[in-house]
Description:
The structure is a single chain. The protein has strands spanning about 1-5, 10, 15-25, 30-40, 45-50, 55-60, 65-70, 75-80, 90-100, 110-115, 115-120. Strands 2, 4, 5, 6, 9, 10 and 11 form a 7-stranded mixed beta sheet that branches. The protein is built from no helices and 11 strands. It starts with a strand and ends with a strand.
Amino acid sequence: VQLVESGGGLVQAGGSLRLSCAASGFTRDYYGIGWFRQAPGKEREGVSCISRRDGSTYYADSVKGRITITRDNAKKTLYLQMNSLKPEDTAVYYCATVTFFSGNIATVVFGSWGQGTQVNVSS
């Protein structure tokens, strides 16, 4: 599987960004696809995921209400619309396959991921 993220950048607090992930080479043995982020010195954090089967979406509490995950199956592209960004959202964002999901984004298991895209939110 190949995942290529884009759309990161520098934005002021309160601003918006839309991340994209071009996907190819999928097999059927995965739960879905999603995003995680990692900031310097911090643990990886699951941000959001979407079920391959029924399109159900899930979000971390830290981003709920500000971030929306969508997919365009025809374009094989995953999106992450991020609004009302905060400095604490600063991180490298990775698009990834989800190999296991129990309903809690905090414990999602990611399989393959891309090279990441940097998001910087200034105060």
